[in-house]
Amino acid sequence: MQSKIQWHQFETVDQITQTVCERILELAKEAIAAHGKFKFVLAGGKTPEKLYRLLAKQDADWSKWFIYHGDERCLPVNHLNRNSVMVANAFLSSVTIPKNQIFDIPTELGVEESAATYRSIVEAAMPFDLVLLGMGDDGHTASLFPSHIHDENALVHSIYNSPKPPAERVTLSAKALSNTQNLFFLIEGKNKREALKKWRAGEDLPVLKVNALKNVVVFFDTAAETD
Fold first, then answer.
1. Residue 213 φ then ψ, to 5°
2. How far apart are CA 34 and CA 16, in angstroms?
3. Pairing of strands 169-172, 156-159
4. What gap in Å lies between CA 113 and CA 189, rounded to an integer?
């Protein structure tokens, strides 16, 4: 079960992105003051993309940021549907985070090789300072889908049968995603209502399996609120 979750409802997605942007910058300052770096795991999706575009306009000590990904699709390296490409276009190309501190999942190498490569990167990086996640309308997060069975002790999973294309993906495990000081979920839209309702009722969904060492915070808009 998750730690006590902080649920924060907003009228609009813009309010969510503004609030989360400010929280991220605060956490980054705290982490850098505490141990000299800010280790941040990014999510894919439309709501995070809006957040990244806002982050790109901010001032921060970018030289101390270290960037990781929660999951990635097995597509060619420059494919527009890759999370890494979206993040680069929306955020990373506009800030001065050193290239050797940006750790993309090399899924162009294939599922097994890229998973093995990223496993060692994740193991060396943990614990993270912040993991950012979304939630699908089926309750999935990253590429952890309902009814999929994984080794609970693994840090990275190879995915061959994603119900959403492409079928092949690489994802951090619930164990790895939970090895973070802070966990933020960004949720918007009425299509998320049913999954959000089930989550709040404690039903067995992938989002429920991810935890944090300190804080689990869910930011959601009015449209996603249950009736």
1. -75, -30
2. 27
3. antiparallel
4. 36
Domain chopping of the chain, boundaries: 5-224
DSSP β-bridge partners for residue 38: 65
Res. 174: pLDDT tops 60: yes
With contact defined as beta carbons under 8 Å apart, do 38 and 68 qualify? Answer: no
Element (H, E) at 8: strand 5-10
Distances (CA, A) of 127 to 7, 83, 86, 130, 183: 23, 22, 25, 9, 12
Check if the beta carbon of residue 125 is closer than 8 Å to that of residue 70. Answer: no
pLDDT score, position 184:
98
* pLDDT tens-digit readout, 14-38: 999 999 999 999 999 999 999 999 9
d(CA 177, CA 126): 9
5-224 fold: Rossmann fold (3.40.50)
Tell me what pLDDT residue 227 has: 56
Strand 180-187 to 156-159 pairing:
unpaired
Extract the tokens encoding 208.
């429920």
For the full predicted model, state whether its pTM sits above 0.90. Answer: yes
